[in-house]
Amino acid sequence: MKKLHILFIITILLFTGCAKDLDLSPQDTITDDAFWKTAAEFKLAANNLYPCLDGLGFNDTESDIAFNVNNVVSNGTYQTSETSWVWNDAYVYIRRSNNILEKIEKSTIQDQIEATKGEALFFRAYNYWRLYRLYGGVPKIISVPDLDSPELFASRASQNEIAELMISDLESAAALLPTRSELASADIGRITKGAADALRARVALFEGSWQKYHGGDNASKYFDIAVAASQAVMSSGQYALYSGKGAESYRYLFIEEGDDSPECILDRRYQKDIQGQVYPALIQRIGYLPTKKLADMYLCTDGLPVASSAVFSGYTTKVSEYENRDPRMTMTMMVPGQLSKQPSYASGVESWPFYPQRNPNTGYMLYKFMSENDFANSMGESPNFSFDNHLIRYAEVLLIFAEARFEKDGSISDGDLDLSINVLRNRVGMPALTNAFAGANGLDMKTEIRRERTVELAFEGFRYDDLRRWKTAETELPQDIKGIRLSQTGWLDPIIINGSNRNPYASEGWTTDANGFIVAESSAGRYFDPQKHYLQPIPTKEILLNPNLQQNPGW
Description:
This protein is mainly α. It has helices at 2-15, 39-47, 72-75, 85-106, 114-135, 159-176, 193-214, 219-234, 249-253, 280-285, 292-297, 328-332, 394-409, 414-419, 421-428, 435-440, 445-456, 463-469, 473-476, 504-507, 540-545, and strands at 66-67, 264-268, 289-290, 389-393, 481-485, 496-497, 500-501, 517-521.
């Protein structure tokens, strides 16, 4: 009886007067009900969106200008996968963004958290961009579903519907976000109005190009949006090309000196012991290599392509192809014999002759992203890559403006070239592009605008998307991946060290074409099916979980 009496008293206490003072909240975590009260808490929640920003990786190896030992996307041998980290990761951050937006709608302090709402809208668009660029249309989820929500079994929205969602979100975000100059010093690196406008321009250019070259009725509409959004950035007075190192500014932009420069619109920022990056020396050593196609794209100093320039020195020596070229070539690719700041060369040993770390090798070595600091290039400690990865920079905005102008009208004025392409050329001391120059030299303006985009943005992850939206991937990707010319250049000459020939090119049986250029990967092993490869396959697990999802054509 005594035990029953005690139990009865406890029950009464729990369900009567004492209940209102009983705090059942866990003491070691913050509950949803206790959060979302202050502007600082909303900002803290937004911090959880930033890890989705991409770090430096093997950018452009899925295309034809960078090589990484038989990339399966580049050569068309990839198959449908069960899962995709991009798919999973993007929807995680879309859910986080939607959750913040829902909490803002219920908040009584909405006027204090407009910038946080802008960040959430930006990151929802950014993560839909990650999906859209690969898969086209995907499920459109703009709420936080629970286990019974019909959104979990939604069919795919069309590619255009996702483009419209991103453009709408980014337009709304731009109206809520601060400009770069309005950020407090502690907030530098957070999303700004400029980032929202620049991403809107990128999305609109992609959608406009896709509609123009893959069949669609509204290409002009999206080119107009791309022009307007890029002009908003250009006229804001917030951004400019980095010029802190004079003639070498393009090179230094991509290492420590370029951090927080006026060219940076959106970066994945390095934070010691919190957010590191991939080691630049590591990615170069394991075969992140330029190709001959990229090397040949750089104009000569007279503004003409190698095929028609009188100042091109040809391929007669190890270094001749680098002479009299657009300076961005030697700020992106190492010149044979050039010393590097990699630990294995710390003693000052000449970095000849780009000794092949993996076979096959193009014979070119990446210089872009290689720090001037020995420690930054070291693989001995983690994280040690101490500079930021530029995800959106002002140069891209200028290129979007020029391309959208041309694609909309079929022409571009010299005035608009001076506002865009020629700003980039002026930084590196290259001749201006004009309609008269193009006409006098038989140059196609569309080709030159695309060339400028490719060399300026090389190794920043744009080429694969560009080839697909231009619908030229079916022509460009199945070609041989080529490298340096071995014959008649001195690359095959013996190098005798301790009595043995240490020249890898003379001793390892490299495949070359009829003109002596390395064939790192033959066209016989490269495929691009225009009926399927313009979009990647939806992961099979997602289709099994949601029977309303339809696979992309051909997969």
